[in-house]
Amino acid sequence: MRAGHITHEGPAAEAIEIVDVETPEPGSDELRLRVEACGLNRFDVFARVGHPEEDDVFPKRTGGDIVGVVDAVGENVSTERLGNEVMVYGGVTCGECEYCLAGEHTMCHEYEIIGEDRPGGLAEYVTVPADNVDPKPDSLGWVAAAALPAAFTTAYRMMFTVGDLGPSDTALILGASGGVGNAALQYADMVGATAYATTSTEEKAERLDRWADEVIDYTETPFDEAVMALTDGRGVDVVADHVGEETWQRSIDSLAMGGKMVICGATSGPDPDIDIRSVYQHHRQILGAPMGNRQEFRDAVALAARGEVGPVIDCVLPLAELAEGHRIIEDREVFGKVVVRPSR
Ligand SMILES: NC(=O)c1ccc[n+]([C@@H]2O[C@H](COP(=O)([O-])OP(=O)(O)OC[C@H]3O[C@@H](n4cnc5c(N)ncnc54)[C@H](OP(=O)(O)O)[C@@H]3O)[C@@H](O)[C@H]2O)c1
Ligand SMILES: [Zn+2]
């Protein structure tokens, strides 16, 4: 089968190769999918240009947002599942620890991510644990379904489970043109919260107007100052920050008394220089939400299937153009999601 491999650390055009490898056979509790579509995330880029926490072993095959058709099953998996159109939940866990039993899969000490700790879906076929697979709703096409899992599940946890965002709240969403940011903005709009979004270009700002009460171009005005002006000096109840050290202090300074900063990433770096008094003296909280659990995944899929929210597709690429997909994300040209169709 054909697969997209990252062969070494380096620029996308040099480090990504489309290779022929053996089609994998499912293990006893696994099934094999013919991959119809696979969404890209910032993570796919980090896997190539060096994520600070990762022990780099090449070649790698990323791709965590997988949808496809079951085409082979392991010996413990019912053959009735053959031909099913499915979506994959990306977290693989022990299933037995206190966190797994509580449904908090991403807290499991054995938590692994498909496309990070195991080969991902940027190939014609992929094997995954049968337990990780849910039916794809008929109302979602392959491309939309592949754009949903990681970004919308993470954003769902950030805004609802952790942020507890409701109609009377105000929220600030950073990087609202990106995968997680755009999903978070759509959720804020969906519940009727007052939503402010940041972005870096006029063109992206115009496209964000659809969901945001105000879009802040942070290249023109420091976004914390803009937020304080918009809220008469009160600040917002929830800030969704996935940018990291570049934005942490301004995110904290954008919060109201008792407000929550919900974080899921560190794109610009993990070592913010912050004044901790700006947190405790204002009763503010900083809360982690690195990914969502299985229930949050199902809730996110259900909301999209009903059309309450929906991924914005930046572009759909054949596997041969995987490097171009990386480039679009890395150069911050992306608006929404890049989706690859490996069988095309
Ligand atoms: N994708 C997921 O499902 C997921 C899940 C868990 C955690 N995360 C983490 O969340 C972060 C965002 O992931 P993503 O997939 O949503 O990324 P993405 O689609 O590439 O979006 C990131 C957006 O952040 C904005 N940004 C602001 N400052 C930036 C900077 N210094 N460098 C790069 N972008 C900057 C950019 O928009 P503007 O130029 O308009 O500001 C960019 O479009 C990553 O750290 C990732 O590891 C992602
Ligand atoms: Zn566990």
Structural summary, described in words:
The chain has 344 residues and is of the alpha/beta class. The chain has two domains: 2-148 and 311-341, Medium-chain alcohol dehydrogenases, catalytic domain (Quinone Oxidoreductase, Chain A, domain 1), CATH 3.90.180.10; 152-288, Rossmann fold (3-Layer(aba) Sandwich). 27% of the residues lie in helices and 26% in strands. It has helices at residues 12-15, 42-49, 98-101, 142-147, 149-162, 179-190, 202-208, 223-230, 248-253, 277-280, 294-305, 322-330; strands spanning 2-6, 16-20, 30-39, 65-73, 85-88, 91-92, 112-113, 125-129, 133-135, 170-173, 194-199, 214-217, 236-241, 255-263, 285-288, 313-318, 337-341. Strands 3, 4, 5, 8, 9, 16 and 17 form a seven-stranded mixed beta sheet that branches. β16, α12 and β17 form a beta-alpha-beta unit. The protein is globular, with a radius of gyration of 20 Å. The model has no long low-confidence stretch (mean pLDDT 97). Bound molecules: NADP nicotinamide-adenine-dinucleotide phosphate and zinc ion (ZN). NADP nicotinamide-adenine-dinucleotide phosphate (NAP) is lined by residues 41-43, 150-151, 154, 175, 177-181, 199-200, 204, 242-243, 246, 264-268, 290-291, 329, 332, 334.
